[in-house]
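Budget justification note: compute hours in this period were largely spent on complex prediction jobs such as the one shown. Inputs:
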Amino acid sequence: MSADVTITVVETPEEAAAEAARVLVDAARAGGSIVLAGGSTPRRAYELAAATEPDWGRASVWLGDERVVADGDERSNAALVRAALLDRLTVPPNFHPVRTELGAEAAADEYDRELSGVAIDVALLGLGSDGHTASLFAHSPALDVRDRHVVATEARLAPWVERVTLTVEALGAAAHVVFLAVGEDKAAAARRAFDEPPSRDTPAGLVRGARTTAILDVAAAGLVRCDRG
Ligand code: 6PG
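Corresponding output:
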């Protein structure tokens, strides 16, 4: 059993979202640099975080990964973050979208430069049912990149568009990495990522911050052999 992750198991997806929202609100109030996940799971956490604390004026917000689609495309992770969080705030943070209009490679270069020297306080990450996190997919060459914060990479799932992603190195430099996963379809991946030795099969298991927490509902935690609270 891996001892490097604190696993928090709650009953419902709503409670998991509330737990993640608490972490985000604390970081926003502290004026932190916060990396946010895309996908569908964190939407509720963002809504709850915005409702709890509408002033994010001291914080800066980054994306852990982005789909290379036109600005305003609803499939973009920036669109999710804007709709569920930023548009609901009275004082927005300094938001750093990925400049997808440049194309994947140039957008990754630009984001890499922008992120240089930033100390990430909290990185909220999702978990794919295949074990990916951000746009770090199993056995991808991106997993080996040590000298960059951000790279362009291919998609291994819908939407089938190029991705820009923070590297294992960049995400692992965060003071606190927080995974949020709910639902039975995440259970096998959660076991591999949080309860088994690190493997390139399961990129989420390679990302560990100074401190790492996994917030799971009971369905996602179903296969994790945990006696932890
Ligand atoms: C993305 C992501 C990705 C996501 C997982 C889980 O751009 O899709 O950031 O890594 O977190 O695929 O997605 P769900 O929350 O939709 O299951």
